[in-house]
Write a structure and sequence with these properties.
single chain; 110 residues; mainly alpha; globular; 7 helices
């Protein structure tokens, strides 16, 4: 039986807000969303790690754009279902950054 995944609410947010974002943030948000969806597949979880995707995603946790942060959190949620990814996410110091987001003023992030 499949574990719950993260993403549907973020996809609707993406569609709603995409026009109001600077192009670079919109691109990052869309890329994180695509990785989130791809990471539902076990082979893709490995591929994302192998090409350095975890490090790039963790760096986006500090993005000024809330929707980028939400999509990154969703992608990391799906990617962390793989034990090797989980270890690398920890090694990349993502956990303190994620915990810091709990203090966010943004309602959607909390």
């Amino acid at each position: 039986h499949e574990l719950p995944t993260f993403g549907v609410a973020q996809m609707s947010t993406l569609a709603r807000r995409k026009g109001s974002l600077p192009a670079k943030e919109s691109l990052k948000q869309t890329a994180a969303n695509v990785i989130m969806q791809l990471a539902l597949d076990d082979d893709n979880k490995i591929s994302v790690r192998e090409v350095g995707g975890l490090k790039k995603l963790v760096s986006l946790l500090t993005s000024p754009d809330t929707d980028v942060q939400l999509n990154v959190l969703g992608a990391l949620t799906n990617l962390a279902l793989n034990d090797q990814n989980k270890a690398e996410i920890r090694e990349l110091q993502a956990i303190p950054k994620i915990v810091e987001l709990l203090d966010s003023e943004e309602e959607l992030v909390r």
